[in-house]
Amino acid sequence: MKDSSIGAALAIAVIGSALLFLVSCATVSTAYVTPLEIPGAHYVGNQACTECHQSIVRGFDASPHAHLLLETTNVPGSIGCESCHGPGSRHVENPGARFIINPLNQPDACFRCHQQANAKFQLPSHHPVIEGHMSCNQCHDPHGGDITHPASGLAMARLNESCAECHHAETKPFIFEHPAMREGCTTCHDPHGSINRMMLTQGDNNLCLRCHAQVQGPGAAGDFYIGSVPHRALLQMGTCWSAGCHTAVHGSDIDPRLRY
Question: Any idea where the domains of the chain sit in the sequence?
Fold first, then answer.
């Protein structure tokens, strides 16, 4: 009797754990997006926007943003414009900025869908979007087709050019360039935010060793070589860019080893 009671209890515990696991897995990956609201306004559809915003709408169909559809709006066709700008009936009746949401100065309109980016902006090192000193539109083109680029995110096809608009010194041409710059700034930086200073994806030497690790030959004798130079003692002095070795990480005009 005792053994059967223990067995039943174990069975109930296993079933309960399994159900909890299934529910947690089902809920973690689901994002519930609440439609934007403007008091007294209702959705009118993309076609109503074309009468005034021809230059934007002309190329908008190339962007997946144009094909967003919220099931609760009961509007035939697509409401891509209003998914980001809110229901547009009052804006149509009274053109101007009063009855429309502008993500340029209201990033929460973007964060409703882009929740992972929103979470990164809460990290210690981030671009000052939530503080109101930058907007998502400075790096992303919400109306263009660049959203389909494999690097992910609108305007990422011209990634370095977007960064260069503000970071002139780091993106200018160098005599001795850092090849990582050709692959994009996001090779080392997370533009939305990071726990590391300067929005680095990693805060130690592993950031560099992802590309600069060298297979150690039989004569290494316990040392660590990079570029045929022993680095075991050097790596103990700090990060590659802060130990006085490769301080010009973006490129140098005087030293092929990327020093000032």
Answer: 46-160, 173-252
